[in-house]
């Protein structure tokens, strides 16, 4: 199977999660709960299961911004799920596509972008994140990450005999990179999403970054 044949900018978006908070969409008028004094994009980084997609949707709704999930963007472009991309092209092929999508998405103003857990591995990706927007590291313990991901079959890197151990190893490797790019660090823990979003908003409003 050749994924290149399925790539097209007009690929259908993944159906919205009916239980998730809606984000601002093109042409849709929603009343924002808060405003930022700039249109810098907000980039969310962190481990798989840290809450980037769910929290990102909540922030987008509260700020009246467009929300983009980088993994979903890749799936829309390729026409297949992330595990299939891994299966056909391997992690190296997936990372190459991820970098290309990140390079494009980070140039867009006024968005909330949830990146994939491994997006920070490439130095060029880290540079894009640092130089183009405000980066927020959503942090959770390995035990919490495992609790959230243990039943998720859409995580190819966790398809191992010891997924908890895999998460621990990935955390050791990636956490320094998350801190390298982060402007803000948020502990997600077991706090309800709505509470987290309300706590994050004033931090974003108070944070100043000149690019």
UniProtKB/TrEMBL annotation:
Keyword tags: Amino-acid biosynthesis, Aromatic amino acid biosynthesis, ATP-binding, Cytoplasm, Kinase, Magnesium, Metal-binding, Nucleotide-binding, Transferase
Binding site for Mg(2+): 53
Keyword Acyltransferase included in the entry's annotation: no
GO terms for biological process, alphabetical: amino acid biosynthetic process; aromatic amino acid family biosynthetic process; chorismate biosynthetic process
Primary subcellular site in the record, as a coarse category: cytoplasm
Catalytic activity: shikimate + ATP = 3-phosphoshikimate + ADP + H(+)
One GO cellular component, as annotated: cytosol
Region listing for Disordered, in residue ranges: 1-25
Pfam families: SKI (PF01202)
A Gene Ontology molecular function term of the record: magnesium ion binding
Protein EC: 2.7.1.71
Cofactor: binding comment: Binds 1 Mg(2+) ion per subunit.
Needed cofactors: Mg(2+)
Residues reported in the UniProt entry to bind ATP: 49-54, 155
Places the protein is found: Cytoplasm
Binding-site residues for substrate, renumbered to this chain: 71, 95, 117, 174
Protein role: Catalyzes the specific phosphorylation of the 3-hydroxyl group of shikimic acid using ATP as a cosubstrate.
Subunit structure: Monomer.
Protein name (record): Shikimate kinase
Organism: Bordetella pseudohinzii
């Amino acid at each position: 199977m050749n994924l290149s044949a399925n790539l097209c900018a007009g690929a259908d978006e993944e159906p919205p999660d009916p239980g998730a908070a809606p984000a601002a969409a093109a042409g849709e008028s929603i009343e924002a709960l808060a405003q930022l004094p700039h249109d810098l994009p907000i980039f969310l980084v962190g481990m798989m299961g840290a809450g980037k997609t769910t929290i990102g949707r909540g922030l987008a709704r509260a700020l009246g911004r467009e929300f983009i999930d980088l993994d979903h963007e890749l799936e829309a472009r390729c026409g297949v799920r992330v595990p299939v991309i891994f299966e056909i092209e391997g992690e190296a092929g997936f990372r190459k596509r991820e970098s290309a999508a990140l390079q494009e998405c980070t140039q867009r103003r006024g968005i909330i972008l949830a990146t994939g857990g491994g997006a920070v591995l490439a130095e060029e990706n880290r540079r894009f994140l640092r130089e183009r927007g405000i980066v927020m590291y959503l942090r959770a313990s390995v035990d919490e990450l495992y609790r959230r991901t243990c039943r998720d079959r859409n995580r190819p890197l966790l398809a191992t005999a010891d997924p908890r151990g895999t998460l621990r190893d990935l955390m050791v490797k990636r956490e320094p990179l998350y801190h390298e790019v982060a402007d803000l660090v948020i502990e997600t823990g077991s706090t309800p999403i709505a509470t987290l979003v309300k706590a994050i908003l004033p931090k974003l409003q108070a944070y100043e970054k000149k690019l």
